[in-house]
Amino acid sequence: MAVPNKGRLNERAVELLAKSGIELGEDWGRRLRVAAEGQGLEILFVRAQDIPAFVSSGAIDFGITGEDMVAESGRGLEKVMDMGFGHCRLSLAAPEDSGIASLADVPDGARIATSFPRVTEGFLRAAGKRAEIIEVSGAAEIMPYLGVSDLISDLVATGSTLKTNRLAEVCKIMDSQAAMFASREALARKGAEIADVADSIRSVMAAEDKKYLMADVPADRLGDVQRILPGIGGPTVLRIAGNDGMVAVHAVVASRDMYRAVNDLKKIGARGILSVSIDRLVE
Questions:
Q1: What is the pTM of this model?
Q2: CA-based nearest residue to 36, from 197, 204, 202
């Protein structure tokens, strides 16, 4: 498995793997290769932009990288799952005083600096636009002011970098986020093993914004409990030994609903209300 070795995708990818129970060891940050003990999994830390080529060639079975990287590589990889982080978009941008406010305003023959020449050229071709693509390895924002290009095509998250450099977004080329990709050949050979890793990560992601809520409530208010705590398929109800008038209810609740749920339970006479974090949730 390949994981980005640095940059915007590294930290969250490593966090999800660790929470999934994949042992990276204490010194993983100083190593390019880690064997997860007892899990039959080898993790390699490589550049995010190299992962599509490694996966496509069969050197690596699957990996986490940006959708933008895979699109630019032109490799026919299969997406295993969205990772839910690293959200951004590839956009055209022009100097604020250029008068270019939409794709229609981009003149034929415009010079566009970008680290994504394949995707940018394909987008413009589909839109019927002719442009000169100038490939750069970074710092595309400075190119219009150096006279190297008229516009840029670059990744945008919040837009603050464009604003700082007095650039305005013209149009979106594609959305992107981190995702897990594999080749068709790897899925045919090791589909079950890849699915195990993906499912483990999904269970961590599913649990992150939820809490496990427990409370003792009057037995005659179970109708209200079902309204307050819908849970996954409804709350779990348990007898309390020696107390027929009360039952214990357990439910998984979204973190954003905890304030309301606890207060509503108190109003129907609930006691011993307790919430705990969840490490993993298999739905």
A1: 0.87
A2: 197
Pick from 154, 64, 77, 74: nearest CA to 114: 154
Indicate left, alpha or beta for 20 from its phi (over 0: left) and psi (-120 to 50: alpha).
Answer: alpha
**Neighbour-count burial of 183, counting CB atoms closer than 10 A to its CB (0-12 exposed, 13-18 middle, 19+ buried):** buried
**Distance between CA atoms of 111 and 118, rounded to whole angstroms?**
15
Q: Which residues contact 251 (CB under 8 A, 6 or more apart)?
A: 212, 213, 229, 230, 231, 232, 234, 235, 236
Which pLDDT band holds residue 27 (cuts at 50, 70, 90)? low
pLDDT tens figures, 211-236: 999 999 999 999 999 889 876 677 89
Residue type for position 5: N
Q: What is the pLDDT of residues 171-189, one digit of tens each?
A: 999 999 999 999 999 999 9
Q: Which two tokens stand for residue 281?
A: 């949730």
Question: Mean pLDDT across the stretch 96-119?
Answer: 96
Report the Cα 146 to chain-centroid distance in Å: 35
Domains of the chain: 2-86+177-206 (3.40.190.10), 88-175 (3.40.190.10), 209-277 (3.30.70.120)
